[in-house]
Protein 1
Amino acid sequence: MPRTVRDVVFVDGVRTPFGKAGPKGIYHETRADDLVVKAIRELLRRNPDLDPARVDEVAIAATTQIGDQGLTLGRTAGILAGLPTSVPGFSIDRMCAGAMTAVTSVAGGVAFGAYDIALAGGVEHMGRHPMGEGVDPNPRFVSDKLVDESALFMGMTAENLHDRFPGISKQRADEYAVRSQEKAAKAYADGKIQADLVPVSVRRTNAEAGETGWGLATVDEPMRPGTTLESLANLKTPFRPHGRVTAGNAAGLNDGATASLIAAEDVARELGLPVKMRLVSYAFAGVEPEVMGIGPVPATEKALAKAGLSIDDIGLFEINEAFAVQVLAMLDHFGIPENDPRVNQYGGAIAFGHPLASSGVRLMTQLARQFEEQPHVRYGLTSMCVGFGMGGTVIWENPHFNGGDDK
Ligand SMILES: CC(C)(COP(=O)(O)OP(=O)(O)OC[C@H]1O[C@@H](n2cnc3c(N)ncnc32)[C@H](O)[C@@H]1OP(=O)(O)O)[C@@H](O)C(=O)NCCC(=O)NCCS
């Protein structure tokens, strides 16, 4: 049977506002699966031309797949979101790149012809499921010196990256973090973020008063507008005495969910669905787990090579900010100035938060919005580092590209 690879597009993406993990966080009383269900429902609500029965697959990522993040989330969230029972689903895990891998996995299926339309996203409730909950690493990792012990602790790998690149000082990391907060505050003020957020009703409790009624989460809780270099200068370095990584220049511990619609371009056009980005190439790559933050470098080189593009062809970058040092290492590698206006125009995870397996689709949703506003840009990329020494990069083409005429 002859086969034709089909063009794959990003139709739409939404997310919940991100919360701070823990008893004081907005989602403390909210189930993880309910967060991703909310995102899926919103995606279907705002794409009424899509008959939910046309969805061929639901891939939902979570890093800790137990409790309310267990039970094959793609399937259970699909049913809870009201998709017909005929729509199958599965769950997926590549730690921080979970949602990104959900997208690339279903994209492969779309290109191959197994699916016309699929849903891909992720969720992480780090309050209910702290990083590393229930893990049982094989002792051979350390006893056989396969990895250094620090490889298991992401903050320590960020300190290792500072060691590897002495030119990336704490000062540079803090300056980067301040800019991320400034850009995120500006993006909110300009209304760039809200359009892709779905408000979530939340039960409020407080230690003294007990339950205090219901509220509505409408904005990212972790944001710290007004952050200054001075306010970051003396924060503790929890991962190493006299280290460089702090709560100010790292993403926090967060709760949140994302969802996106991925489709064959011809099907999207036939159904009148939006076409926000066209997939060009993607790649994942492994690096030494002790310096996992450098993962985006080989992943990007691989994705660029597959696309036949160079870094100079990329007009917009959405890079996950697990740690400032890791973004700076990538920018330095490619010779991109750290305040380059093409990079994280709306700010990044240092400001918005990073609920691990959900973040990949946040990057894509933001890139899609930037594509729409900047038709002179042809290509953009989303990239992230991944625990245990990996990176992932997806290159996208702007369907609104106008030939660069208005540049
Ligand atoms: C770094 C980390 C340990 C900090 O956790 P935390 O101590 O609970 O963080 P907090 O939000 O309470 O911040 C700690 C302090 O820094 C302060 N702070 C944080 N960001 C700040 C900012 N932008 N400006 C000023 N102060 C700030 C807080 O106010 C707090 O001060 P306090 O101790 O006086 O209350 C945690 O966020 C972490 O582990 N991050 C990395 C997550 C990760 O590994 N993800 C996976 C990536 S691969």
Protein 2
Amino acid sequence: MKPHAGEIESVIFDLDGVIYRGAELREGVLDVLKELRAWNINFHFLTNTSVKTTRQIQQKLSNFGLDVPLSSVTTSSEVAAHYLKRELGQGYLVLTAGGSEGLSEELANVDMRQVQLETIGDDELVKIASRSEECCLLTAWSDRFDYQVVSNILYLSESVEGVFSTDDDREFASGDRNLPGTAWINGAVQRILLKKPLGLGKPHPFSVDYVLNKMDSLPDKTIMIGDNIESDIAAGQAANLLTCLVLGGATTNEELCALPKHLHPDFIISELLELLPILETRNTD
Ligand SMILES: [Mg+2]
């Protein structure tokens, strides 16, 4: 059963489009987080970003005057690495297409072996294709995905047992425009391999379970705040959390209007400060 707003003990925030938009902090963020601390409400940041390391995100938040522990930030790379370790076991070979430092760091943290399909040499390609060892493919966002990478994926297709992605976001908010998300890579991979990459970040239920575990929080005490209906709000709904959509990010009014009623978030706000009255009943308990 979903919680009442007054029973909320934990908040999971998306980052891009909610806390900041590109290089700009969104209005009211510092006031809201100060108030949550005063009310003793836990908060955590769960982003489908796979490019940055958690430390780089922590530093970006700190530059905005927002100091949070490293353990309060989770990327889709971290979620994906832990999912693959759980499902495939430590030391399993992960072929990656896209992604960068953030992905490599998280795979190394859980002792998965990574081979990057952007830089793989012909000898290694042949070696992997010719040995019987199983491997999986993991895609992540990149603006440098190209024909050579897709050719490498096709060449190794017989060796690839599972096809995963850090996320399958169609777009993300950046500066004054939205940019194509990891779906632009996943679309090409799906067409070539005839297998749809399984997105492991939001809205996959593992991403929310993973964060609830890290926070030591329960679904019925937690609210998910995001700007993306397809990832943030869907993830919260799948995990039976209360959900709150922040307008002015990845979701337009038109997209919201076209959404079937049962998929609507519990709350819709234009600015983060509007979250406080929603949670206020708790403060007056
Ligand atoms: Mg977002």
